[in-house]
Amino acid sequence: MLSKITKTTLLAALLSSAQLPAQAQNEGVDEVVVTTTRTPSLRLDNPGNIATIDPSESLSLFPVELLNTAPGVHIHRGSGQEHLTAIRSPVLVGGAGAGSFLYLEDGIPMRAPGFANVNALMDAHPQNDGSVEIVRGPGSALYGSNAVHGLINFIAAPLEDGARSLDVAAGSYGRHALGLMSSQAHEGFTSRVTLDLNGEEDGYRDEQSFGQQKARVESAWEKAGTDYRFSLSAMNLNQETAGYIKAKGDLSPPDDPNDADDVADFEEAIAELPAACQSVNGPAYENEACAKSNPNPEAYRDAEAYRTYLRMTRTLDDGATLTLTPYARSNDMSFIMHFLPGQATENNSHTSVGLQTSYARSTAGVDYVAGIDVELTQGELSEIQSGPNVFGTKYPKGTHYDFEVDAQVIAPYVHAVWSLDENTRLTTGLRLELTDYDYTNKATDSDNTDDSQTGEFLFRPASRSDDFSDISPKIGLVHELAENRRVFANLARAARAPQVTDLYRLRDNTRVDGGNDGLNPDVSNIDSEILDSLEIGYRAIYPSASYELAAFIMQKENYHFRDGNDFYETDAETEHYGLELSLEWLLADNLQLVSNVTYAKHEYAFNRTVGGGNPAETVTDGDAIDGAPETLGNSKLTYTFNARLDTSLTWEHVGDYFMDASNSAEYEGHDVFGLGVDYMVSGDSAVSLRVDNLLDERYATRADKWFGDNRYFPGEGQRLMVRFTRDY
Question: Which of these, 244, 190, 189, 238, lies nearest to 213 by C-alpha position?
Fold first, then answer.
């Protein structure tokens, strides 16, 4: 019943938004965005969707919870800083989860193409940023690999002379945060130092905790007609991780209740559950004691990330602007793969140097920017299982993978905005991306991890080189209906070269290029993912309301995903379409509503029996992709008592969704409420309080089905966070 009510509510919100123009007569105030053109421009004239979030409005230690307030965004939070992302997509895992979304810091990718990470948000510094901009669907020609389903750009605040601040927060589960910022200027040289220390000492679940440290140094100056902007950022994470939970009721029952061996296997599976879950008939997240248990107390994640850039901008004699941005990054991570049988340990790292160039010029009738992006990366990965064999030799003890990859990416691009008339602007863009991988296998060239084993499950190709050429065209149109209203349309193709793990961490029985299941997949037949997207929308700004309504349809080819038997599909096809509404409405002088709602369908567009040993995971054309709710919504209603005090009520809605490719198990969805109070103590000091999960709802932040069993990351119970900020 709740699902039907919610769908009706979302539809009513979409329809009621069409009445807003009749309720206002004058033009409102527009905001400035930078991501889609790399230069400041009005959001109203953007030839596609873009959402802007103010990080200072969130008390959370997790960027996931900040970003989930945007339309079309549904990020599953796991344990600590772990997460899986969805932006106009189902929640994606593996190489698809890492490679389908682009995460930027001031317009520069935080990870190298081909070496992305599904948990990339842990590298971000939203506590120190001025804004976060989100583009749903393909990015513009200015951005390449990984800007397939969407991109997120964390943008630093402007440097200000003499700005200093203290930010302290504490809350449930031993959570704490300390933020310090100081800036100063001297003889035209402005600098800023920020430090953020946060973590949790006693997590919601057993033996769960983390500590994270972030620091950033920034400088800006002008010399001889050239503007310089320098940034150096660092992040360190040490996390004790809690794994998926499942209860007795989540286990796959015996195939034959009269077969003693099947019954014994089922009873053994129950005995392996945490004690608090063994008598729970499921789902596990509905029982508080079971939800707080941790079947993987040995799991951990340690990570480091360093990034630096120097942006040099100069106005040339012809009025054009030339920008050069050399940059470098280094990432290192070690963790136990608690989400897979065998609990192998992965170590991965990569180091990159790169250069972004752009030449921007405005002429009669057209504004354009052209350039070339170049990046060189050295990376390595190893996966070693120290425990005994699991499922025979499917997950065997020993070295699974150990390889190095040298990568080179060269990407020329051009982006132009044409004035067709005084009310209509046409945006065109084209990006060519050339990717080369030089792979060196440091383990044996074999489909076994140990020559003494006879199982054929792991495939390690011999050392080789692979290259990919991807073209990403784009065309967009914006028409001005009035000074405060626009319609827009956007047709784009996004492409991404395979992640190095898509190519070199395969398993026998991986299906490549539509071939039959078999040993020794042909890596040379693995192609780049391609997504074609059409979007149309309407955007309006009034003194008391602003809103954006967008409809999209997308088709994807060569989709890479891991099936229910942990084999890889590399040539799948999917379809995606939906409606998104963003609304800000001043209902009264002291009452404001901010709401984002989404209705979307994400479906498989092919037929296949996935992994011969697990026929229940059969994929059928037209079935919903797992991890893809049709309805998403979040709203914030703020009441302002006076200039010092306001309070807000928040609502997060996640609709029901299937947990496996065959649509045999379903998560019922959830609705979670929160309460916030903000009090301005003085002109320089403020106190904020948040109560999340106000009604202590039992829910899951992620639900899926793996090897026949349902499993979950449980949502946390009612929790409190208090924050004190002071500007000096």
Answer: 238
Contacts of 662 (CB under 8 A, 6+ apart): 564, 610, 616, 617, 618, 619, 620, 623
Non-local (6+) Cβ contacts of 187 within 8 A are none
User: Is there a contact between 152 and 115 (Cβ–Cβ < 8 Å)?
Assistant: no
**Residue where the block lists tokens 């951990």:** 300
The yes-or-no verdict on residue 469 having pLDDT over 60 is: yes
- pLDDT at 442 > cutoff 50: yes
| Percent of the chain's residues with pLDDT above 90 | 74
What value does the mean pLDDT take over residues 427-442?
96
CA 705 to chain centre: 21
Single out the residue of 6, 8, 15, 9 nearest to residue 549, CA to CA.
15
Structure tokens at 364: 């009669």
DSSP category for residue 159: P
Indicate the length of the chain as a whole number: 728
- Reference 570, options 613, 525, 615; nearest CA is 525
Alpha-carbon span 350 to 399, nearest angstrom = 20
Q: For residues 512 and 635, what is the distance between their CA atoms, to the nearest angstrom?
A: 43
Collapsed DSSP state (helix, strand, coil) of residue 616: helix
Per domain, the residue ranges of the chain are 2-247+282-727
User: Taking a C-beta distance cutoff of 8 angstroms, is the pair 659, 710 a contact?
Assistant: yes
Q: Are strands 657-658 and 666-667 parallel, antiparallel or unpaired?
A: antiparallel
> What confidence tens digit (pLDDT) does each residue in 236-280 have?
999 999 999 999 999 999 888 888 988 999 999 999 999 999 999
Higher pLDDT, 688 or 29: 688
pLDDT classification of 616: cutoffs 50, 70, 90: low
DSSP state of 163: -
The Cα–Cα gap between 203 and 240 comes to 9
In 3-state terms, what secondary structure has residue 546? strand
Determine the Cα–Cα distance for residues 1 and 12; give it in Å rounded to an integer: 17
pTM: 0.92
User: Is 523 within 8 Å of 502 (Cβ atoms)?
Assistant: no
Closest by CA position to 708, among listed 353, 266, 233: 266
Question: From CA 351, how far away is CA 46, in angstroms rounded?
Answer: 34
Q: Give the sign of the dihedral formed by CA 274, CA 277, CA 278, CA 284.
A: negative
Please choose, from the candidates 448, 461, 334, 347, the residue with its C-alpha nearest in 3D space to the C-alpha of residue 398: 448
pLDDT in tens, 197-230: 999 999 999 999 999 999 999 999 999 999 999 9
Mean pLDDT of 630-658: 97
Token representation of residue 94:
């593996």
- Residues 112-163 pLDDT 10s: 999 999 999 999 998 878 899 999 999 888 888 889 999 999 999 999 888 8
- In angstroms, the CA 382 to CA 349 distance is 10
Distance separating the N- and C-terminal Cα atoms of the chain: 52
d(CA 210, CA 66): 19
CATH code of the region 2-247+282-727: 2.40.170.20
Grouping H, G, I as helix, E, B as strand and the rest as coil, residue 284 is helix
d(C-alpha 456, C-alpha 185), whole Å: 64
